[in-house]
Amino acid sequence: GAGVSQSPSNKVTEKGKDVELRCDPISGHTALYWYRQSLGQGLEFLIYFQGNSAPDKSGLPSDRFSAERTGGSVSTLTIQRTQQEDSAVYLCASSLQAGGGNEQFFGPGTRLTVL
Amino acid sequence: AQSVAQPEDQVNVAEGNPLTVKCTYSVSGNPYLFWYVQYPNRGLQFLLKYITGDNLVKGSYGFEAEFNKSQTSFHLKKPSALVSDSALYFCAVRDITSGTYKYIFGTGTRLKVLA
Predict the structure, then answer these.
(1) Any idea what DSSP says for residue B30?
(2) Which residues on B lie below 8 Å from A107 (Cβ)?
(3) Does A49 contact B at CB distance below 8 Å?
(4) Whole-angstrom Cα distance, residue A72 to residue A86?
């Protein structure tokens, strides 16, 4: 079956521009997570969505970052006025549900480079 | 607050020898613990998890991990390493009594198995 997909796979942008990163979770998965992977920094939690509940935005590093999940499926992570320190690989993961100890299935990531 | 530590950035082991990748955690309540693996140019894949029950859990590719509550550890082990095990390994924790479904990942340990 189809896994988690992310687009674009690579994005190069200029400092100050806005970018949108897209995640298509596995069908039927109610939980969706966004992470940022920087070299030597591991995976940094950004935000998660669980069903129709309010998302946990506690990991978003600044108000330039926002995310939404439409119809309980596709999610978009938006970074406004990008900075060079935003350069990283952005990973999306989905799971059957956020609780219950379900494992996460990760997408291939979007590599963002801010010049 | 919850946290997880992977004290070794890199572990080198000879093929055929046993391997251990260390993980310690800190949570206020009870943890769910996970190991994920990231092969070169591939997404993160689930390896194994501890939810409840037996402290020794077995996972994919012959890996196992032991939950040790007194030492707050969840070290990943394999009796006989293969060159193909060379990858980046991440430990993750969630405090199931925290009221959040947020997972905290370690900074990763690069395993290099030498032929």
Answers:
(1) P
(2) 43
(3) no
(4) 26
Cβ atoms of B1 and B52 closer than 8 Å: no
Q: Please give the structure tokens belonging to residue B39.
A: 């092969």
Left if phi > 0, otherwise alpha if psi is -120 to 50, otherwise beta: which for B108?
Answer: left
Chain B residues closer than 8 Å to A45 by CB: 102-105
What pLDDT, on a 0 to 100 scale, did the predictor assign at position A1? 56
Give the pLDDT confidence of A26-44 residue by residue, as tens digits.
999 999 999 999 876 789 9
CA distance A7 to A62: 22
Q: Cα(B19)–Cα(B12) distance, rounded to whole angstroms?
A: 9
Answer for the pair B97, B85: CB distance below 8 angstroms, yes or no. Answer: no
Neighbours of B7 (CB within 10 A): 11
A58-79 pLDDT, tens digit each: 999 999 999 999 887 999 999 9
Provide CB contacts within 8 A for B54, sequence distance 6+: none
Would you say the C-alpha torsion A103, B6, B63, B1 has a positive or negative sign? negative
Name, in order, each residue with C-beta under 8 angstroms of A100's C-beta and a sequence gap of 6 or more.
none
DSSP codes joined into one string, A24-50: EPPTT--EEEEEEEETTTEEEEEEEEE
Q: Say how far apart CA A89 and CA A47 lie, in whole Å.
A: 15
